[in-house]
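Researcher: Quick sanity check before group meeting.
Model: Go ahead. Protein one:
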Amino acid sequence: MKAPRTDESPEGRPDTAEVVLAARNVAKSFGAVHALKGVNFDVHRGQVTTLFGENGAGKSTLMKILSGVQLPTSGELILDGEPVQIRSTVEARDRGISIIHQELSLAPNMNVRDNIFMGREIMGRTGIDYAAEERETRALMRELEEDIDPLTLVENLRLGQQQIVEIARALSVNSRILIMDEPTSALSASEVEVLFGVIRDLKAKGVSIVYISHHLEEALTITDHAVVLRDGIMTAYAPRDEIDLEWIVRNMVGENFDLGTPPEGHEMGPPALELKGLCVPAASGSGYAVNRLDLTVRSGEVVCIYGLMGAGRTEMMECVAGRLPASEGQILLHGKEVSNPTIAGQIGAGLVLVPEDRQRDGLVQTMSVGRNLSLASIGQFTRGLFTNRREEDVIVDQAIREVTVKTDGASAPIGSLSGGNQQKVVIGKMLATKPSVVLLDEPSRGIDIGAKSEVFRILADHAKDGMAVIYSTSEVGECLAIAHRVIVMRRGTIAAEFTHDVTKEQIMAASGESLVA
């Protein structure tokens, strides 16, 4: 394999496609934190450039600069051969540049149609032409093969459907440069295939794609060439035919490693969580999202729940955590039945949930990193109406170290962190309550391979100390990480149960999915 190209020699690349947008020596600082340190980056006409890197490597910062969300501290952007300053997203859109953000930027209290055309409404003779907007929205949904009514409120859509709306909004602008920051993080396998088909069509029309993903193998199927960022510096570049999974991992984290193995060297204790005949009504009001489910998880055991979108994983976890009501069945925590559980009650009893949607359910955007980390364990350092800041600082500092949050300090705004580090804050917040049972719904969403390894190591260590760990995932590879058992859910029930030596093919077959090479 050829040696990777780096920032020091951006010229002489083998790409024959025209460079339509380039970053030259771009740097960005946030106080004492240097997010980018003189990056050179090219966007080629009609090609997909995939940007890899760990959380905090500077990927999202670079994309925000290219799309007008942020201005660089130094360096320049060159568009169509001319230096430009892109001062806003509106200016970027006018120049043909759009971005699909990793964190959804939709208005949940508005319908799908209004979200797609917000700020650039189609005007008729007497005002906004809602009929025309609805027709275009339906056409976009057909293109994305998603049956979503344009008049549905966004807050009533599941997370994957909200991601589809975000993608549709970007496609509706007819951009010539489209930046996709983790566009598949909430999509099912079939939705990913549809999106990749759309990307191929866009390439054929000359649209340039910048693609960011922590799904490494998935990204390799769509990329034309790859760039790796590490600590704000571009460390490697290569065309598609020179890269593989090992090349990406080595340049991202410095070594090739797996996500871990099931924790050993300890005996499992008695049942920590028992579900008996659990039923959770579907959000549609018809049928059940979870249908007569039985599950027992012992202290010190790690159980993975795998299933496709709509399998009932999220509904089961949210019911156990007190977020959704059960219509039938029992929930037992350490042998004692929990009737009508509430979120606060379950946290107090030692059961916590790390939710799938960190922005909506896991973080308070107006609070600092430290306040977000201490929020769930506030009872540990409050006395009546007063808080003990010293005790709170101890909890926060320990959480930052335990989940390795990369931050400028506990007082830093939560919005200053990368998506993956925000996810670590959500996990750290719940672990700070010292739970005996932890549920994690898609804990690696938006987390790079290095951070995944850290998170799974943390969970394995807690399992050795007797904590029951239940995590759900739609990535079959993560089932083979640290789980003692793999439970496959399908249509609200348990379709199969395996030990840790199960194969990918067995898991996917049980879920009703086929393995595509």
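Researcher: Fine. The other one?
Model: Protein two, sequence then structure:
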Amino acid sequence: MTYPIERIRNFAIIAHVDHGKSTLADRMLQATKLVDARDMREQYLDRMDIERERGITIKAQAVRMPYEASDGSEYLLNLIDTPGHVDFSYEVSRAMNACEGAILLVDAAQGVQAQTVANLYVAIEAGLEVVPVLNKIDLPAARPEEVAEEVAALLGGDPADILAVSAKTGQGVPEVLERIVAHVPAPRGDVDGPPRGLVFDSVFDPYRGVITFVRIIDGILRPDTHIRLMATGFHNGIDELGVISPEPRPVDALGPGEVGYFTAAIKAVELAKVGDTVTDHVRPAPQPLPGYREPTPMVFSGLYPVDSADFPDLRDALEKLRLNDASFTFEPETSVALGFGFRCGFLGLLHMEIISERLDREFDIPLVTTAPNVAYEVHLDERTLKPNEPRVVTVSNPAELPAPNRIDHLLEPVVDAMVLCPSEYVGAVMQLCERRRGELAKMDYLSEQRVELRYTLPLGEIIFDFFDRLKSSTRGYASLDYEPAGMRRSKLVKVDILLNGEPVDAFSAIVHADKSYEYGKAMVSKLRELIPRQLFDVPIQAAIGGKIISRETVKARRKDVLAKCYGGDITRKRKLLERQKEGKKRMKSVGAVEIPQEAFVAALSVGGD
């Protein structure tokens, strides 16, 4: 049945990591009697194994819930459960565009955190009605009155109006549903106009092709509609039209304000772009809906198959993941040391970790991942420019950096970082940020106990282990959120690692000049432990341009050529040793150094302080 538009409510749950979004979604599924107690499981909407194991949401999930309000009237609630981690904030912004309201969930023990504030701003920008809710009020450490004051200070309004729930026990959940029905506005749309729907997610199914999730804005979509995707121009008849409630279920029609999915034999992953507009091919809408701004990758890394024969399989796997995750980019590249692979762009380090793990699990492709780095803007010296060569180039792979004598200056990406922490840890946080070349922008006391620090930090300094250091220096109480803030001129150099005099491109890195010596020394001593001994001495050197800044040597394995000499003349022994030395010198000039896979993996852990 299609519901009248005034009885539909679309809302998302937004919160910091681990504040109980998925658990609250579970209780709502039970409160609306959509899932029986015997079928219920924790994190019901988290479909991927990796989400369940880590206890985090990676993909936003939509579910349709019929609900009978206290006055007996029937409503249709469309809930979108969103991720909380900063790396997946793009998923949150997409979910917001498919909603009219948002539940802002705050942990009553931890209080307002960095992602709480960041997600709230996204919701306000999208013009959503925000319903503040305190969760985990059953915890012994909960301080509902204090946290309600913090939330009220953030949003304005009376702390007494903020709902208190326990998503674990279900206490207070019916009141939240009533508040949504009362406060979240109904969607607006033209029922009689040509159909227009916003694609907010898509998943690849090996049997049915692309499953496209859509929020209908105008008109009605029916199973016999011949649809067209306006951005890509793809058109075909609908095979199946349905809703997720909470398992996929076919329906006869989707009207304005409703959220559902369709399949239309879309085979190529690029054809169903997130943010595209679905319309009727015969009676198309005059103009498409405003989509989403394209996410910009922040962190780049090389992914190479351990076995080079897996390269075509890796390409297919990356294309399938790219469909499920619009914020992930890749392009082919080659490395002297690692062979053929891909240079991939991610939103952050957790995003990179998840993609690598999904490739290993879902597609069974073992990978070597190079050290993550960011994209730099290189301004070349005009005197060295070749004909038709651009003056400014963007470099995301250290191996592509032009020679030092051709570079005029380099720009690196910076971010506006927001750190929320208890006031006693302000010193430790400031010390960490100063060490990472941060500049303090402002500092606000939200209450006597909580401080908000805003820093401008180079992105290259925070992608390695900044978050771990922040957590350990504040006993886990600090939270971090950041957003891009453009480019800044900086004194950067490329550190090359030479093995037996040959540069290994996989180990090259672009670092700040002040930290180049420590990086080179750490890398060289680590490789000395990892590279097995050869039959000749292997010098490992770190160099900036032609200048060697650090060196270690992996000593040769030696055969004891003097074993058969019992006493006798010293010249005999010397002659045998000289001959061995000559042989080793000859071997060194033609010998190739075998680099084990662990050395490439260990390269990731070098960096930071």
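Researcher: One line on it for the slide.
Model: The chain has five domains: 5-183, 196-280, 299-369, 376-490, 496-508+515-603.
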